[in-house]
Amino acid sequence: MAIEPSATLAVDAKAGELKAQGKDVISFGAGEPDFVSPPAAFAYARRAMEEGRTHYPPTQGIPALRQEISDYYKRRFDLTVEPGQIVVGCGAKPMIYETLAAIVDPGDEVVLMAPTWVSYIEQIRLVDGKVTVVDTEKTGFVPDLREVEQAITPRTAAILVNSPSNPTGVVYGADTLRGLGALAVKYDLWLVWDEIYEQLVYGENRHIHPLQLMPELAGRVVTINGVSKTYAMTGWRVGYALGPREIISKINAFQSHLTSGATSIAQWAALGVMRESEADKQKMHEAFESRRALICGLLAAMPRVSFPEPQGAFYVFINIKDYLNKSYKGKLLNNDIEFCAALLEEELVAAVPGGAFFAPGYLRVSYAVAEDVIREGMARLGNFLAKIK
Ligand SMILES: Cc1ncc(COP(=O)(O)O)c(C=O)c1O
After folding, report:
1. 53: helix, strand or coil
2. d(CA 116, ligand 1 centre) in Å
3. Ligand 1 midpoint to CA 120 (Å)
4. Which residue's alpha carbon is nearest to atom 16 within ligand 1?
5. 117 lines ligand 1 (CB under 6 A)
6. Which of 90, 154, 311, 367 has the fewest C-beta atoms under 10 angstroms from its C-beta?
7. Terminal alpha carbon distance of the chain
């Protein structure tokens, strides 16, 4: 079976190689906060170890964590999600895969909005599904609902949506959500709703859960979330899925044969941050907010690049099309991949090519890095652009 490796991790690996050679690489490649996890993660993990919580946890997730997630959804969205409608696993990524495995039969189609996160495409292929892509570039990175409807066929099983979006940072508004929800009802589809960045939304922007607008979707929405991004917990590998009981038990059954659930100690750490790390979360949020302002200001001053102002997540998706098919030091930059390779080799700046997100001609930079790193990296990007003729 052919599997494309994650392009974001590949950029990181190349940047890591150069760093290991002693080169002063600035990496905007990573999709993770640079902060250390909050103290509650360590306290809860330590206590779990001392209390000997080293046996198989329940596959579906430890009850205290599922209860905490249930309480969180009540507080945050006023949604009633019973602990039995929640399954915890080893990060949001496997929860998406397990959801797809539960709802996609071989040959079924899943509609995605491009630019789209790399792993969705490979995961759909891994469950023998087919990817149908609706391009949103011309409509401000929000889908045109007529195009989504045209993409639906009798083989469509699901619409998979990610808001706030990786890579664009766009947050879907109520009209778009209502429209997508109506299509899911009309064509009897699942709506897989990946809101892993839901707490990382800035300024006046607001994140809405589709069930707040359309409670009638409850039987067809699977929500994906986790602690990785909000609480700087990427290495602990804890994510979760919420949905109708039947689908959650299918996912749980699948998981019981695959991983037996997330690591016990890590689940306790996740419980710790969800219970006690509000202040740490706020601090990280403030840092992202000011990094976002910084990087957007620096990019706005660069000629002939454009980008949607990110409303959420921690990425800027930069249109570099005006710099393609031009020369850098006598070498033609034919596409975003060659642009990124030259940027890394010559200016030691790592960024991910848009092609990895089904959006060639763009560059994704992550601002989950310190402000001095942003300043230096953007100065190098500016130098690089100035030399392209
Ligand atoms: C859109 C999206 N969903 C899910 C994930 C995966 O999160 P986790 O690290 O919890 O597996 C990522 C991480 O990059 C992401 O960008």
Report:
1. coil
2. 12
3. 10
4. 166
5. yes
6. 154
7. 42
Q: DSSP assignment, residue 387?
A: T
223 lines ligand 1 (CB under 6 A): no
107/156 Cα distance (integer angstroms): 9
Segment 213-233, tens digit of pLDDT: 999 999 999 999 999 999 999
Which residues, including other chains, have CB under 8 Å from residue 146's CB and lie 6 or more apart? none
For residue 196, report the distance from its CA to the centre of ligand 1, in Å: 6
pLDDT in tens, 14-28: 888 898 999 999 999
The residue to which tokens 């940072």 are assigned: 169
Nearest atom, ligand 1, residue 93 CA: 11
**Alpha-carbon span 12 to 19, nearest angstrom:** 10
> What is the mean predicted confidence (pLDDT) over 129-145?
97
Structure tokens at 269: 């750490």
Instruction: Determine the residue type at 150.
Output: Q
Residue whose entry in the numeric block shows the structure tokens 């250390």? 36
* d(CA 383, ligand 1 centre) in Å: 32
* pLDDT tens by residue, 324-339: 999 999 999 999 989 9
CA 45 to chain centre: 25
The answer to whether domain 7-37+279-382 has CATH 3.90.1150.10 is yes
Angle at 155 between CA 112 and CA 166, to 5 degrees: 10
CB-ligand 1 contact for 91 (6 Å cutoff): yes
Q: Which CATH class is domain 40-276?
A: alpha beta
Question: Which of 166, 168, 222 to mutate for ligand 1's pocket (most ligand atoms within 8 Å of CB)?
Answer: 166
pTM for the model stands at: 0.95
Per domain, the residue ranges of the chain are: 7-37+279-382, 40-276
The ligand 1 atom nearest the CA atom of 226? 10
Q: Count of CB atoms within 10 A of residue 248's CB?
A: 23
| pLDDT tens string 170-211 | 999 999 999 999 999 999 999 999 999 999 999 999 999 999
Q: How many CB atoms lie within 10 A of CB 150?
A: 11
- Encoded tokens for 257: 């044969």
Question: Which residue's CA is the closest to the ligand 1 atom numbered 1?
Answer: 166
Query: What is the residue-wise DSSP string for 250-297?
Result: HHHHHHHHHTSSS-HHHHHHHHHHHHH-HHHHHHHHHHHHHHHHHHHH
Is a pLDDT exceeding 90 seen at residue 271? yes
Cα separation, 61 vs 94, in Å, equals 14
